Amino acid sequence: MSRNDVTLSGVVTELEPLRYTPAGIPLLTFRLTHQSRQVEASQERSVSLDLPVMVLGDLAREMAGLTPESNVAVRGFLARRSLKSLSVVLHATAYKLEME
Amino acid sequence: MSRNDVTLSGVVTELEPLRYTPAGIPLLTFRLTHQSRQVEASQERSVSLDLPVMVLGDLAREMAGLTPESNVAVRGFLARRSLKSLSVVLHATAYKLEME
């Protein structure tokens, strides 16, 4: 079975106002700024990352109320930004507010 | 707690020969070509994605024996390709061969 599951926590930055697709579906975009320590080949390392996030539908409406700089954990899947693009976007399908 | 968990399945492409870091740690790189259908805002959509993967240590040695075009599910974390880069790499910490 094909898997594409991501859970990424971080700080909400560049939170744009809610907008709508041409089909009238709510659309929200922001960036998730992540920092953590990860273990790789038995060695701990620091990881930092800044990923664009896209949210559609009712979840977009809900997340539009987030305070910028909120700490959240986003669950979703990765996709190309556009057909011609090599860069990736995290499509959020669920989220949770995190304690700092 | 900070989360950075990815499980992505796909086809192994551009599998490079095993090499070693300056510190002598085995290093393997390839690309994972992913296709799936995902549900977003109650609508099914097709997703395709091609992500660079990096593997270090014993796992790199093990995965170096993969047949190109193998179907695998890779588990790991996302990180920036380099300090100055905005593009992301999936660091594999585990994998599983998948049936086609």
Can you name the CATH architecture of chain A?
A: Beta Barrel
**Main sheet overview of chain A:** 5 strands, mixed, barrel
Strand content of chain A: over 45%
Mean pLDDT of chain A, rounded to whole units? 94
Quickly count the helices of chain A: 1
Bin the helical content of chain A: under 10%
Give the spatial strand order of the biggest sheet of chain A: 1-3-4-6-5
Overview of the structural elements:
Two copies of one chain form a homodimer. The radius of gyration of chain A is 14 Å and the shape is globular. In chain A, strand 5 (71-80) and strand 6 (88-97) form a beta hairpin. By secondary structure, chain A is mainly beta. Chain A has one helix spanning 58-63; strands spanning 4-13, 19-20, 26-40, 43-56, 71-80, 88-97. A five-stranded mixed beta barrel of chain A has the order 1-3-4-6-5. The first copy, chain A, is built from one helix and six strands; from the N terminus they run ββββαββ. Chain A has one domain: Nucleic acid-binding proteins (OB fold (Dihydrolipoamide Acetyltransferase, E2P), Beta Barrel), CATH 2.40.50.140. The A-B interface holds A 1-10, 25, 34-42, 47-51, 56-60, 73, 77-80, 86-88, 91, 93, 98 and B 1-10, 25, 34-42, 47-51, 56-60, 73, 77-80, 86-88, 91, 93, 98. Strand 1 (4-13) of chain A pairs antiparallel with strand 1 of chain B, so a sheet runs across the interface.
